[in-house]
Amino acid sequence: MKCKTIAMSVLTASVACWLAVQTSMPAHARPNSSPQNTKAQSSNTPSDPLKSLTNSFPRSVRARQNGHLLEFCPDNTCDGFVSSQSVPVAELKYFAYLYIYFFSDFVYLPGWRTQPEAKKVADQILSRPEFGKCKSQSDLEKARCVLLDRSQGGRIKLIFVRYDEGQRNVVPEDIRAELSQKPLSTR
Fold it and tell me: Of 15, 19, 78, 93, which is the most buried if we count CB atoms within 10 A?
């Protein structure tokens, strides 16, 4: 009986310590507070859509400036995406994924676009409630609408980045011009 009492005391103390640690941690650092458990993820969108991209292109996605600068660099050139601090990092990731899936012209992408997982992630992003005002008959046109809407007022900007001899060279891109060009095949 004495062993049972000691075991209960140890268990109670362990739970109390665990709770103290959990409540002292910021919400984003808690093990069970991942974005997948929030209402915003109700549409089954992956918490990080760029993981699908990095599964096919390891070490190709770089995040800087606390996630407000993303670069997709399958070689020494990159599609870059820059947002203001007021734009949630998740929104920038959705933007980057849609641009890369539907509009990027890297020669490495056509094979990736045919993968079911790549298409599934694009479909999940396009079905998010915050993109509902973009209604279109095709996914391509809906993606174009979402990208134009989210880039209004310079909230998200497109850049081209080239790494030459250890130097980072950045060229601002006109998102409207890039999206108005003939779309790439996703089939």
Answer: 93
Give burial (CB, 10 Å; 0-12/13-18/19+) of 173. Answer: middle
Cα–Cα distances (Å) from 143 to 28, 33, 63, 73, 156, in that order, read 29, 29, 22, 21, 15
pLDDT tens, residue by residue, 105-142? 999 999 999 999 999 999 999 999 999 899 877 999 99
| Angle in degrees, CA 64, 139, 95, rounded to 5 | 10
Domain boundaries, the chain: 1-33, 46-180
> What tokens appear for 49 in the block?
């859509």
- Per the rule left: phi > 0, alpha: psi between -120 and 50, beta: everything else, 67 is left
